[in-house]
Design a protein that fits this description.
Length: 232
């Protein structure tokens, strides 16, 4: 364990939500740069609320999943910190600026590490966190920031089960898929059109399935292409 993680765990505050269930934290890193202006950002705004709605369809997932949203567009903002689906208040996303995607990924990693430390301080079990990255372009971070984000993501992904972070990367039309492929060992998938709603349905179903397993078990996910929201 790094010194940074030791300090984080020793200073973590307990959760006060009185929910004894094990948790599945999930962060959505959403590219809202200037290139998403118009129909892409409109469709994304229509779809984001569905993630919380879908999870509420399963009582167990509603108690076990914690959701957060990081907006990347010009700068990096935590648009929604971790909350259960019933308290999820979808942010109104606006398009603008460049794409500091590496900075957004680093923020998401820091968030899930802090959240995991809070679970531990609260004597709560937790599943491997999910970070779901969606972008329609290429990162505009300085090279050293992007390289650090890629290295941190790969290191977190390579940890043993129970300590790792699971990454899913989605490219919207116009995305630099080669650049996005650097983030995770799992190849990025390309969104079919602007089917954000289908993508969030798949995410919610996958999170629900994860929340129903024993901690440490492998989760079998539906192929995104077969699910209809991604294309080869």
């Amino acid at each position: 364990m790094s010194d940074e993680l030791r300090v984080l765990k020793s200073s973590a505050a307990r959760l006060r939500d009185r929910n004894p269930e094990p948790r599945v934290p999930c962060v959505k890193v959403l590219d809202c740069s200037g290139s998403t202006e118009g129909e892409p950002i409109n469709q994304l705004n229509e779809a984001v609320p569905k993630l919380g709605e879908y999870l509420l369809e399963d009582p167990q997932a509603a108690r076990r999943v914690d959701l957060a949203v990081v907006k990347v567009g010009g700068d990096v903002q935590v648009s929604q910190d971790f909350v259960p689906p019933a308290e999820f208040k979808p942010p109104v996303l606006t398009a603008g600026g460049a794409t500091p995607l590496g900075e957004g990924i680093l923020k998401a990693i820091a968030m899930v590490e802090e959240r995991r430390a809070r679970y531990e301080a609260s004597d709560l079990d937790s599943y491997d966190p999910w970070i779901f990255v969606v972008s329609d372009g290429a990162p505009t971070d300085p090279p050293e920031v992007w390289e650090l984000a890629v290295r941190r993501a790969r290191e977190a992904e390579a940890r043993e089960r129970g300590k790792r972070i699971v990454f899913f990367v989605v490219g919207v039309d116009g995305a630099d898929m080669r650049k996005l492929a650097q983030i995770s060992r799992r190849p990025p998938v390309k969104l079919r059109g602007l089917n954000f709603a289908g993508m969030f349905r798949w995410v919610s179903q996958s999170l629900t399935r994860a929340s129903q397993t024993e901690i440490g078990d492998r989760v079998t996910l539906t192929n995104p292409i077969a699910a209809g929201w991604a294309e080869a």
